[in-house]
Each structure stands twice: as C-alpha cells, then as structure tokens.
Design goal:
- The structure is a single chain.
- Helix 3 (83-90) crosses helix 6.
- This protein is α/β, with parallel strands linked by helices and 351 residues long.
- Strand 9 and strand 10 form a beta hairpin.
- Helix content is 19%, strand content 28%.
- Strands 5-4-1-6-11-8-12 form a 7-stranded mixed β-sheet, with helices on both faces. Strands 14-17-20-23-26-29 form a 6-stranded parallel β-sheet. A 5-stranded parallel β-sheet has the order 15-18-21-24-27, with no helix packed on it.
- The protein has 7 helices and 29 strands.
- It has helices spanning 33-43, 59-66, 83-90, 92-95, 114-124, 190-200, 220-231; strands at 2-6, 27-28, 31-32, 48-53, 72-77, 101-105, 108-110, 128-135, 143-146, 152-156, 165-174, 205-209, 214-216, 245-246, 251-252, 257-258, 263-264, 269-270, 275-277, 280-281, 286-287, 292-294, 297-298, 303-304, 309-311, 314-315, 320-321, 326-328, 331-332.
Length: 351
C-alpha cells in the first residue's frame, strides 16, 4: 500500500524552532518525528511513501539519504505551496489509480490502527474515510458531523465556545477516482475544498472513530506533551523509553539533576549542578553549570549559560541565554542571544 505524507507546511505555530528545521524533522525522543510516522506506516503494510514540499525542502535530503528499510520514499518538489488537498492531487501520478491509498499530516503522532481503518473503508465501499478523534475542546479544530452509521454530513467551522466533539485527525483513506476532477497543480484545502465537494456530490464519505492516541504537534506545548506521553507509555506504537531519557551520546554530569520527564538528545550536555525538568534538550545543546531549565525546549546547538534560569521558553537552533539571565515565556530566534531580562545573581560563564 502507498501513502502520501503531507510535509509542506511552514510550521508557523512552532517558531522559532521551525525557522531552520522542518517540523516533521524535529527530534521526538531519539529520532525525527517523520521517522516515527514512517515506522508506524511500515508496521501497517505501507511500502512506499510520497513526500512533497516547497518549504525548506533541502533539509529533507539528508533525512531521505539516511532512511533505511520500509517504506521507500518518493520525493515530489512543489514549485509553490499547494495546500493539503493540492499536494495529494499532485501526487496522484505517483500513487496510481487502481487501489485506495493513505494520506496523512506529517505533524501528528498517533497509534491509529491503520489496518483496521483501511479494512473498514473497503467494507463500506467508501470514496474517502477520515480518521476522527474525540476532543473535549474543539475550538482549535472545528467539528466533523456524522450520521449514526459514520457517514460524514459536513465539516463545521471552529466553535467559539468550548464544546466536545469529533474532529478531523489528519489521516485519510482515499480512492484515486474520487479526486480525478481536480487537475494538478493547484492549491486546494482537503477540508474546505475537497471533502465538501465530494459530500455535495453524494459520494460516500465516512468517519473512522477510535480511541487511538493522537496529538497534533503544531505548538511548543503540544510538542512537549508528545514527549511526556511517550515517556509515560501512552503511545501504544512507540518504543519503551526510560525516564528521564538520556541518549547514549549525551553527557549528563553526575551532579546534575534531571526530572522524570526530561529528554536529553544525542550529543547534548548538561553540566554540574544544572537542573532540567519537563524539558527537551535537542542534539548538541548545552546547559551549563548551575543553570535551570523548566518546561522549555532547547533547540540544536543552543546554549544556556551558567546560573541562568529558563522557564516555559523556546530556543531555536544556535540560540543562547547569557550566564545569570532569567528567561520566562520567551522565544529566541535561531542564532540570537536572549535579551537580558533579569539577572539571577548566580555565578556562571559562557563557553
């Protein structure tokens, strides 16, 4: 079976991390988010994946070259952003016309039973099947209305008030023939353009509800939560990870203190008397002596100076916090030095 994985988004809500790194290539525990996605698809019999993007596409080259085993990857360069629907239509020539295929957002983590979803799609004779997730607050997503038998009636706008309901979970099984009316390349939204048109034509569009784990990695808060959930064993398809998680090539001083939900990636360093809690330290980042990092994300090769305090903040690739500075709810762009907001009084140094 083939799948189209949508990796064309700019990841604006995850900035400044995504200023230099595609969100699908951000580390999630011990490897890139996209590795987790492809491994999950492989376990469900997907042997070929089509990827396409017009944003930071060069950053995918090393990933594709390093990837081994199932599924194989076919790359399509978009000359301009095509949207979720346009990217899928543009990939039809690589997907083929004979069999249904999967399409999914590349910035989600899920243990969805894809095999069961495809089987249900075939049994129903559906033109499209949409994975649905039940949430307590649909304001950020919008609602998908279905009949009792699961047939989709409509996509509703995001509610203004907090209400529970079923939302589009970003994984689809599609019949190529259902998309034949659209000519590539062209910009389309699968939610606003494609699915409403198919529903209006009376084609059988169904929802697939399950209690599978699902999270959208679109914000720093959600990105952190995905790490915590993996550490807590909530993602059924993920490997077991020790808590705290320290990569084999990371260096954590015996005198440092890591909270249970700390993640220290490959090549990172946490020095003497440093504290890291509820945070992710990306590859080759450094937390210097006596620094404290809580509820934060430290991008690759970033540095927190000695005695500094970083709370609920995000440092992009190569960003730095000077020694002794306190940073709270801040975003520091790639290669930039954080503004001196407050001095902690603790001694420290910048290496």
């Amino acid at each position: 079976m083939r799948a189209v994985v949508l990796v064309g988004g700019e990841g604006t809500r995850l900035r400044p991390l995504t200023e230099t790194i595609k969100k699908e290539l951000l580390p999630l525990m011990d490897r890139a988010v996209l590795h987790h996605t492809l491994d999950h698809l492989s376990r469900h019999g997907v042997h070929e994946v089509i990827l396409s993007s017009s944003y930071l596409e060069d950053t995918f080259r090393s990933f594709i070259e390093a990837r081994r085993g199932d599924p194989t990857i076919t790359w399509i360069t978009e000359t301009e952003p095509l949207g979720t629907g346009g990217a899928i239509v543009n990939a039809l020539s690589s997907v083929g016309t004979g069999e249904p295929f999967l399409a999914l957002n590349g910035d989600i983590v899920t243990d969805l039973d894809v095999t069961a979803m495809v089987a249900t799609h075939r049994t129903r004779g559906a033109a499209a099947t949409i994975a649905l997730a039940h949430v307590d607050d649909a304001r950020a997503f919008g609602l998908v209305a279905t009949q009792a038998d699961g047939r989709v009636l409509e996509f509703r706008e995001k509610p203004q008030e907090q209400v529970p309901g079923d939302i589009n979970a970003g994984t689809y099984v599609l019949e190529p023939s259902a998309l034949s009316r659209w000519e590539p390349p062209g910009s389309l939204s699968i939610e606003r353009d494609v699915f409403p048109a198919l529903i209006a034509d009376g084609l059988p569009i169904y929802g697939f509800s399950s209690d599978a784990y699902w999270i959208d990695l679109g914000t720093p808060e959600k990105y952190l939560q995905a790490h915590f959930d993996m550490l807590d064993g909530k993602v059924g398809s993920a490997p077991h990870y020790a808590t705290p998680f320290v990569a084999d090539s990371a260096a954590v001083h015996d005198g440092a203190r890591l909270g249970r939900r700390a993640v220290v990636c490959a090549g990172a360093r946490v020095e003497r008397d440093a504290v890291v809690e509820d945070s992710v330290v990306h590859p080759h980042a450094v937390v210097e002596e006596g620094a404290t990092v809580r509820r934060s994300i430290l991008g690759p090769r970033s540095r927190v100076g000695g005695g500094a305090v970083v709370n609920r903040s995000v440092l992009a690739e190569g960003a730095a916090v000077p020694a002794g500075v306190a940073l709270d709810e801040a975003r520091v762009s790639a290669g930039q030095v954080a503004a001196s907001t407050e001095r902690t009084g603790a001694p420290g140094r910048m290496g």
